[in-house]
Amino acid sequence: MRKVTVFNFITLNGYFKGPNEDISWHNHGEEESKYSAESLKSGNTLLFGRVTYEMMASFWPTPMAIENFPIVAEGMNKAEKIVFSRTLKKVEWNNTKVVKDNVLEKIKKMKQMPGKDMTLLGSGSILTQFADEGLIDEYQIMVDPVVLGDGTPIFKGIKHKLDMKLTGTRTFKSGVVLLCYQPVEKA
Question: For a 10 Å CB count at each end of the chain, is N or C smaller?
Answer without folding.
Answer: C
